[in-house]
Structures are given as structure tokens and as C-alpha cells.
Amino acid sequence: MQIRFDVPADPAYPGRVAAALSRVRLRRYGYIGAVLVGAGAIGFAVSQGFAWGERTTSLWMTLVVGGLLSMLYAPWVRLRARRRSSGFAVEGGYDITEDNIMMRSGSESGGIAWDGVTQVRETPEFWIVYVGRMPATVIPRWLMSAEDAETLQAFMAERGLLHAR
Q1: Are residues 98 and 132 in the same domain?
Q2: Residues in Cβ contact with 100 at an 8 Å cutoff, skipping those fewer than 6 apart
Q3: Containing domain of residue 58, as a range?
Q4: Which of 15, 49, 52, 64 yields a CA-CA distance of 20 to 30 A from 112?
Q5: 60 with 98, same domain?
Q6: Kind and range of the H or E element at 16?
Q7: Beta partners for 29?
Q8: DSSP letter string over 19-58?
Q9: Which of the listed residues 34, 60, 87 is the one where a domain comes to its end?
Q10: Long-range Cβ contact pairs of 142-149 (< 8 A, separation 24 or more)
Q11: 123, 66: one domain
């Protein structure tokens, strides 16, 4: 397998990559926020039926507000990442073989050996490549030819790396 494709110097591309990687890393804040909002709302509703309800209202409202802020943290970070990374647009490319994924961006290059990849997750735009528990890089699916994308998907599935969303 030998897959090569170029990445154009699109100002939106680094932001899309940053958003995809941060979405994975920040997902837990949404879950934590939902739990806090739920606990705060239930606590507030239950406490209103008791005499001590007036004294604990601020506690329950604090949980609700904290939960909402936690849920809004991930979208805020993604928005900042998109804005800050738009200035990093340079031409690059990928060279993917059976042994590794080589990436180049401007004058920098790096690679990841397939032996070190623990899983690959699919999103509508990217394959997110994990090394250990952390997302290490992305492979942009829309920049590849359809045949190359099918070949790479079959290769990753054969190795047991590909996980559905």
C-alpha cells in the first residue's frame, strides 16, 4: 500500500484539525456538565418541598450554573482553536504505507508507525489516529481519492484499528 496526497495551504484546514482533536479531548466536560445540571435541577426541585429548601437554593443553582459552564467550555475551546490556528496554513502532505504514516507541513515532517497506533476513530471529515489513549493526528478523508480511502479503510479494519464513531 502506498497512498500519497497533498494538503493545500487552506487557512480553514488547521482550524478543522484543531476542532476535531479538541472535540475528542474535551468530550468529558459535556458529560460532567450534564450530570451537574441534572443533579442541580433535581436537588432544587426536591428541596423546594422542604423547610430547608431556602437555605440550599444557592447550592443547587451553583451546580446548575457550573454544569452549564462546563458544557460550554468545549465549544469555546474549539472556537478559539479555529481562530488561533488559521494563521498556520502551509502546504503539506501525507505518505501512508503499511509501516507508517508520514506527514509533512511546510518544512516540518514527522511520522507515526502503525505498530504504535492503538485505534482509529472515524468522523465525517477525518480518521483520528490514537497512540495509546491520546489522539495523535488526523488523516483527512476528503483530500484522498475514493480508491485510496477505501484501501486505507480496509487496511485499518484488517489490523483491527478502525472503530465506528
Answers
A1: yes
A2: 111, 112, 113, 114
A3: 13-87
A4: 15
A5: no
A6: helix 13-47
A7: none
A8: HHHHHHHHHHHHHHHHHHHHHHHHHHHHHTTSTTHHHHHH
A9: 87
A10: 143/5, 143/6, 143/7, 144/3, 144/5, 145/5, 148/3, 148/5
A11: no
Grid-cell match 488559521, residue found: 86
pLDDT of residue 125: 86
- pLDDT at residue 75 in the model: 83
Among candidate residues 32, 52, 87, the one where a domain is terminated: 87
The verdict on pTM exceeding 0.85 is no
**Domain shared by 81 and 92, yes or no:** no
Pair (92, 81) in one structural domain: no
| Residue that wins the pLDDT comparison between 121 and 14 | 121
* φ, ψ at 109 (rounded to 5°): -150, 155
Residue 53 has pLDDT above 70, yes or no: no
